Amino acid sequence: MLAIRLPEDIERRLEVLARATGRTKTFYARQAIVAHIDELEAAAVPADASDDPFGAFSEWDSAADRRAYAGL
User: Which stretches does DSSP call E strand in 1-72?
Assistant: First the structure.
């Protein structure tokens, strides 16, 4: 089960689309999530977290800061 709050304009557009097509708002919300979940995951989760050995220090400004810390 999923409940989401949408901006009013998006909610209105979704309602109009659902009425015009005889489908439910849930149908279109599901379609949108299924269609875009791969790109959302790719943007949010690195393909391989081990690619960044300094991940714990990711708040640092640059790779130079990381190298300096590591003594390189």
Answer: none
Residue spans of the domains in the chain: they are: 8-70
What span, in angstroms and rounded, lies between the C-alpha atoms of 54 and 51? 9
- ∠ Cα 9 14 17 (to 5°): 125
The rounded distance, in Å, linking the Cα atoms of 66 and 60 is 7
| Cβ neighbours of residue 49 closer than 8 Å, sequence gap 6 or more | 55
Instruction: Spell out the per-residue pLDDT of the chain, length 72, in tens.
Output: 889 999 999 999 999 999 999 999 999 999 999 999 999 888 887 666 555 555 655 555 566 666 666 666
Per the document, the length of the chain is 72
**Model confidence pTM above 0.85:** no
